Predict the 3D structure of the following.
Amino acid sequence: MLRRIVVKIGSSSLTSSEGGLNRDAVQYYANELANLMKADLQLLLVTSGAVAAGFREIGYPERPKLLHEKQAAAAVGQALLMQNYREALAEHGISAAQVLLTRSDFQNRKRTGNASMAIEELLRQNVLPIINENDTVSIDELKFGDNDTLSALVANLIKADHLIILTDMDGLYTKDPRIDPSASRINRVTEITSDIYAIAGGAGSSVGTGGMRSKIDAAKVASLGGVPVFVGKVDQPGELRAALLGDGRGTYFEAHGAALPRKKQWLGFFSTPFGTLTVDAGAEEALIHGGRSLLPVGVKQTTGHFHTGDVVEVVNKAGEVLGRGIVNYDADQMSDILGLPSTEVIKKMESVHRLEVIHRDEWISLKA
Ligand SMILES: Nc1ncnc2c1ncn2[C@@H]1O[C@H](COP(=O)(O)OP(=O)(O)O)[C@@H](O)[C@H]1O
Ligand SMILES: N[C@@H](CCC(=O)OP(=O)(O)O)C(=O)O
């Protein structure tokens, strides 16, 4: 099968702080993408820059902060972005398609399936899908905000082989280099720990959003889905290919595990938990390292009004999120059997549909 690559380009790489699109930058990225497509790779582009590209043409002096202004700027800028990408790619005989997605599309399994079918067909026809958030219909609480998370979800959805996140910084540094020039680059991250989160700061420019932090979030989502990630910078001919071959200016994040089935992707990244189960150290070990189901004996506390079949989040006593699963008991039933060994649960319950609180097939671990 052809290798599939998702490339994400941030606003900071496409626009200037005064706003407006950098056409030379668009041409450069289009050339890099086209060269990989000609080498028989399947490419998907997730591009930001609609708001940053559009605000000046509308007459706003700086990147707008109010939602309706951002939406207006994005509506203008998205058209500009597409026009420029399409023209630049046409020079290589490559056609490009616009795909606009929202978070709610990913929460709905049917819509995710539809998006995936459309994208698959574009790839079959050698058209480059150019994806952005549908800013005009996204309100704040439903927004991805930055496109880093969107690019990771797309990479998982289409089971990409690599996710390349391009930004204005050549990788993750031990501190934001704009604040501390003595910071040094981390070339490879094998596991995304809390230490990695601690060194990642916010956006470095007036047009970017999310900064390194959202790129780490994205790397985590992708790596859980079995997709390795590169975060860095390219601005020379051939550098995108070099980044793909492991020789890029940036940070490589290793993937953990194999590609996730669609159901587990939904469970981990798009579902809404209705409550929380706090588990003890033995249950944590069984879930995370033992590949086992969660039994009542390991559950020490619950919150929320969940019902059988709902999604719940599982945390340890320190409040660390361990994963999510589909619960086999209502919240009321759970409170009666907290911490009980299975023999006691059977005695106590009138009928036991399933002994496990969460079966291992309906569980996804979110701890790296
Ligand atoms: N530890 C870090 N290492 C590197 N960059 C960092 C770090 N912490 C914060 N940043 C900032 O993250 C910025 C990139 O994110 P962002 O501005 O959102 O770009 P984009 O528009 O490409 O998504 C960099 O310009 C940098 O200032
Ligand atoms: N959908 C928005 C993305 C916003 C944004 O700034 O994202 P990013 O540059 O990836 O941090 C746009 O196109 O302007």
